[in-house]
Amino acid sequence: MAEYEHRHIDFSGLGVVRDYKSPGSNARQRTLQRIREEHGRRVVGELDVAFRSADRGREALDLPDGTPPPDGIYLEVELAPGAGPTTLERKREGTRQGAVTVTANGIRRIALFVPDDTRDVFDAVFRDYAFAEVEGDKIPKKSRVEPVEHIRTARLQTFWRDDPAALPDDSQAEMWWALWCFTDRVERVDELARRLGLTVGGDDTRLRFPEVTVLPVHGRRAAIELLLFSTGGIAEIRRATDTPAVFTDELSGMANDFVEDLAERVTWPGRAVPAVCLLDTGVNRGHALIEPALDRDDLYAVVADWGVDDHSDIGHGSGMAGLALHGDLTAPLADASQPVLSHRLESVKILPPDGFEPNDPFSYGAITTSAASLPEISAPERPRVFCAAITNENRSGAEPTGWSAALDQISSGADAVDEGPDHIRRLFVQALGNIGDSSRADEISDADAFPGEDPAQAWNVLTVGGITLKSDIAERGYRDWSGWSSPGDRSPYSRTTTLWRSSQSPIKPEVVFEAGNRALSRSGAEALSGLPSLSLLTTSKAAGREPVSPFWATSAATAQAGRMAARMMAERPDFWPETVRALMVHSARWTPHMLAEFEGPQARPREKVLQESTGMERQICVAR
Question: What's the rounded Cα separation, in Å, for the pair 239 and 163?
Answer without folding.
Answer: 9
